[in-house]
């Protein structure tokens, strides 16, 4: 069975075609600048990498182009669209309407549209991607796989905000969490790598990329996570502020003459390590500048690592112990100096890692950094969110849970 995984952004559409017999991507790529001038598709297919410059005024045209490349004589890996058995869509927010992935019908799509205001930066694009695929592939089963679903096991004492209870009952204002497909994948992969039963483990999974979040996974279930109602809460990120005093919003409105939407853009797109360093949102650039003596770049890294370390400690307390720390995503997998700065100081929890191995890992591999005798395992597990989406879609199409 072959499943097309779609992740639609406001002006982009990423895709992978996964052969579920081997769980490998036989084609992947992305459409960029949808609705803008100079749009293009970059991908890999039968004959390696390629780039196509095409006008893509909307997501429907982008989906059609993806399907053309999957089936054409040069780049194609399938004979026709009939070889695509199902489509799995990444959908950011489920609110409390869904606690698992679901097959998409008109009712599900209407619920997603109703929840769009909970993630205005992501949900409209996700919905556009679904509509575009349904228009082009009306008879192909499709699934919505929610970022928030893995975190639906959080207890109320973890997800409630200390504001009047009616804000929750009337408007569903609470912590939801994101990156759920990544946290689900790496927690399961970590248990398998260690040859342990996940229901016996207390893990902290650290998805550290331009967007970053941490989850406390106890006995295979998420019991807390750093992101909240939106992906703005929690860790310092590439361009997002993370945790901040809410009064800062009103203060900025008065001092800088900003409107509320301008402040939100300021906190979402101009803050984080970019805002502190003044250099970049890319850790490679910031690390390079810090090594040259740039004090703001160094401070940005220190603030980021301090926040991650603090969350790890708090989640160990929340779970009553800690067995495993997992690093994943771009920064978590590829920045040894950042991992080291996070881990140094956690010895009191039983963390002890191989510093030489940490500096000399092979990218893309599961790595056990744990030193002999350490109570807490320290792992690097490359994430695979697309595979989670494909697996969930397959289970639904076959009639599973």
Overview of this structure, please?
There is one protein chain. With 401 residues, this protein is α/β, with parallel strands linked by helices. It is built from 15 helices and 14 strands. It has an eight-stranded mixed sheet, sandwiched between helices. The radius of gyration is 21 Å and the shape is globular.
Topology:
Blueprint: E1 2-8, E2 12-19, E3 24-32, E4 40-45, E5 48-53, H1 59-71, E6 86-91, E7 102-103, H2 106-114, H3 123-136, E8 142-146, H4 156-159, H5 166-171, H6 180-194, E9 202-208, E10 212-218, E11 221-225, H7 247-255, H8 260-269, H9 272-277, H10 283-291, H11 295-319, E12 324-328, H12 329-334, H13 336-343, H14 355-358, E13 367-368, E14 377-380, H15 385-397
Parallel strand pairs: 1-6, 6-8, 9-12, 12-14
Antiparallel strand pairs: 1-2, 2-3, 3-4, 4-5, 7-8, 9-10, 10-11, 13-14
Helix pairs in contact: 1-3, 6-15, 10-11, 11-13
Mean pLDDT: 94
The number of helices is: 15
> Which structural class is indicated by helix and strand composition?
alpha/beta
Q: The biggest beta sheet, please?
A: 8 strands, mixed
End-to-end separation: 18 Å
Quick one: overall form?
globular
Low-confidence stretches: none
Total strands: the figure is 14
Q: What's the order of the H and E elements?
A: EEEEEHEEHHEHHHEEEHHHHHEHHHEEH
Please tell me how large the radius of gyration is: 21 Å
Strand content: 15-25%
What level of helicity do the residues show?
25-40%
Give the strand line-up of the largest sheet. Answer: 5-4-3-2-1-6-8-7
């Amino acid at each position: 069975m072959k499943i097309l995984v779609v992740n639609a952004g406001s002006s982009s559409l990423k895709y992978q075609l996964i052969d579920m017999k081997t769980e490998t991507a036989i084609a992947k790529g992305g459409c960029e600048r949808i609705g803008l001038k100079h749009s293009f598709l970059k991908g890999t297919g039968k004959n390696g990498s390629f780039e196509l410059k095409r006008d893509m005024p909307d997501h429907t045209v982008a989906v059609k182009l993806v399907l053309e490349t999957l089936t054409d004589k040069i780049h194609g890996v399938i004979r026709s669209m009939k070889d695509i058995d199902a489509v799995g869509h990444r959908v950011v927010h489920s609110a409390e309407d869904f606690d698992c992935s679901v097959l998409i019908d008109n009712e599900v799509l209407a619920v997603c549209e109703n929840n769009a205001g909970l993630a205005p930066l992501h949900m409209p694009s996700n919905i556009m991607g679904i509509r575009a695929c349904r228009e082009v592939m009306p008879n192909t089963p499709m699934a919505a796989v929610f970022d928030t679903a893995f975190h639906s096991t959080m207890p109320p004492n973890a997800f409630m905000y200390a504001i009047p209870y009616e804000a929750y009952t009337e408007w569903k204002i609470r912590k939801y969490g994101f990156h759920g497909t990544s946290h689900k994948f790496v927690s399961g992969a970590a248990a398998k790598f260690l040859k342990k039963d996940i229901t016996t483990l207390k893990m902290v999974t650290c998805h550290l990329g331009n967007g970053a979040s941490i989850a406390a996974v106890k006995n295979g279930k998420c019991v807390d996570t750093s992101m909240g109602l939106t992906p703005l809460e929690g860790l310092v990120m590439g361009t997002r502020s993370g945790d901040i005093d809410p009064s800062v919003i009103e203060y900025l409105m008065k001092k800088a003459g900003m409107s509320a939407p301008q402040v939100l853009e300021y906190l979402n797109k101009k803050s984080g390590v970019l805002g502190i360093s003044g250099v970049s949102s890319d850790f490679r650039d910031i690390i390079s500048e810090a090594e040259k003596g740039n004090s703001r770049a160094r401070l940005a890294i220190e603030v980021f690592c301090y926040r991650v370390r603090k969350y790890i400690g708090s989640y160990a307390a929340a779970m009553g112990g800690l067995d495993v720390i997992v690093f994943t995503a771009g920064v978590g997998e590829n920045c040894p100096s950042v991992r080291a700065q996070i881990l140094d100081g956690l010895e009191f929890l039983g963390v002890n890692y191989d510093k030489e191995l940490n500096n000399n890992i092979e990218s893309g591999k599961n790595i056990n950094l744990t030193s002999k005798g350490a109570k807490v395992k320290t792992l690097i597990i490359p994430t695979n969110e697309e595979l989670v989406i494909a697996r969930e879609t397959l289970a639904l199409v076959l009639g599973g849970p």
